[in-house]
Amino acid sequence: MSGYTFDAQKARDALVAAIGDIARRQGFQKVVIGISGGKDSTVTAALCARALGRENVYGVMMPDGEQKDISDSQRVCAALGIRTRTVNIGPIHAALKEATDQLGSRAGEGEFSVPYARESDINVGPRLRMTTLRYIAQALGARLAGTGNLSEATVGYCTKDGDTSCDFAVLGKLTSLEVVEVGLTMPELPRELVIKTPTDGLSGMSDEEKMGLSYADIHAFIRLGTCGNEETDQKIRAREKANMHKRRMPQILDPFPAEAGDR
Fold it and tell me: Is 190 helix (H, G, I), strand (E, B) or coil?
């Protein structure tokens, strides 16, 4: 791509060093990672295994009921030789819907009903997975390694209090395309999982289909300032602005505003 170059091996080695450095500075050895079978968690797990040793990486597979491609998650863990555990969040998800009565059939007098909303339901999965990962990480005395990439964060294709929650974000400065390039430099990873078409595993669509944007266009917008199509640039820019709250800590409101004369 004209005007921008990316050295995948250099980025890989820098991230491995950074993981080791933060572990030494903060005094931890073990990390917990949610393993989906997609490229982001696959590459994150490989980088952590190189930095900390495979015996210190705990991969957690979290199907919501039945996960058709869970064999991909299992292949990642087997290829890296990391510790594994499977936690099915399906019963937890069902219990949450039952407890909140999303059909509104049992709302008491004076209570509001909670209707079923598909997008809300889809986002429950990432939030329950993050709660599960936090529970396991704290029990093990481990840190939670985030797997989200810069492309997803830029357009808000992530779940607040879900996959955005972690102790350190391994891939947060790499675009989706760059994650693939880094993954392809690691022979311990099955190549087909690194280049696997990204999906959320819930909606039945690929990430690009659901967003209405291609990762190539998002990459070009981030690295070059434009994807070459102004209409698409505007769409990306609008999504970035609308979803900026997902990338920041909650705003603390000021109950003591300064008087105009004090400014």
Answer: coil
